[in-house]
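Q: I'm building a small set of examples for a reading group on sequence design. Run inverse folding on the following structure and report the sequence directly after it, with nothing in between.
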């Protein structure tokens, strides 16, 4: 039996009790799932006809168009939020108080306003005839504020000595931010950045409020305009459209995991030079071959 400061290993009675709780909880969950399935079956929501509607070419085409519309809005919002996030992060880290205060006010204001209200206000006030751009702009504003805070935290996590060393080399503030601080901040916060992009992808479903034909709006139209055996296929539509959302988010999450692992495997630093035996011939014995970090031939030099 082992124990730590934060956790005491359970004794025999606690192990038995935990197993009983786990079994009881699992049985209760399975019972709730079974009850839900039985009730849905009694109401005819699990009939084959309810699911057969997705074999119709028209409904499939509507769903494909909705996926494309969702990805378009997400692509615009992703680019817009990242660009706005960088600008706001740099502005909030500025040494000029008016710039820093303006960026802070903007970030805190739009982080406090519900995203749905922002999207609706942009649509009604500026882009009534362009629902896709209204949705993308609203998403960009809100998620750009969140990304700005993420990047600011990443910049502040860079050791202060690196900034001071860059200034000591004569680099300007812009050069220090662009060449030293921001690249390291992006690399450190990349998982969080892409996780916020997953949130952005899910938030495209709010486009239904401005009648943008994304997945949720298309699902609502399909479920409310298609009648099967006197019932509307809400359950089957929710399951199918929800599965598409889950699949897209899992792909984006897998991309984040892949990028993070690739970043950990990246070679950093400069390898130490390897001295070899003196070269015979006309070359002086003090010639030393240096092997680069990539394993290729290095640079040869002489010592005086």
């Amino acid at each position: 039996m082992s124990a730590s400061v934060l956790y005491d290993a359970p004794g025999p009675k606690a192990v038995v009790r935990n197993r009983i709780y786990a079994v009881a909880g699992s049985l209760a969950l399975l019972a709730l799932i079974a009850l839900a399935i039985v009730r849905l079956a009694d109401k005819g929501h699990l009939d084959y006809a309810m699911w057969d509607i997705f074999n119709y070419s028209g409904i499939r085409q509507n769903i494909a168009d909705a996926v494309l519309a969702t990805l378009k809005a997400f692509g615009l919002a992703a680019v817009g939020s990242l660009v706005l996030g960088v600008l706001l992060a740099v502005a909030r880290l500025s040494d000029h108080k008016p710039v820093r205060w303006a960026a802070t006010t903007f970030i805190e204001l739009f982080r406090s306003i519900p995203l749905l209200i922002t999207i609706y206000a942009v649509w009604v006030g500026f882009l009534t005839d362009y629902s896709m751009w209204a949705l993308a702009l609203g998403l960009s504003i809100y998620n750009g504020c969140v990304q700005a805070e993420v990047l600011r935290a990443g910049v502040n996590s860079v050791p202060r000595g690196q900034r001071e060393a860059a200034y000591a080399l004569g680099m300007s503030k812009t050069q220090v931010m662009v060449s030293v601080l921001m690249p390291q901040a992006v690399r450190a916060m990349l998982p969080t950045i892409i996780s916020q992009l997953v949130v952005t992808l899910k938030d495209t479903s709010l486009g239904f409020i401005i009648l943008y034909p994304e997945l949720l709006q298309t699902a609502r139209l399909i479920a409310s305009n298609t009648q099967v055996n006197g019932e509307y296929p809400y359950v089957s539509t929710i399951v199918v459209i929800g599965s598409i959302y889950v699949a897209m988010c899992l792909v984006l999450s897998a991309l984040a995991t892949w990028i993070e692992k690739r970043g950990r495997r990246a070679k950093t630093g400069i390898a130490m030079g390897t001295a070899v035996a003196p070269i015979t011939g006309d070359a002086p014995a003090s010639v030393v071959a240096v092997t680069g970090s990539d394993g290729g031939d290095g640079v040869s030099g002489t010592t005086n």
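Strands lie at 288-290, 299-301.
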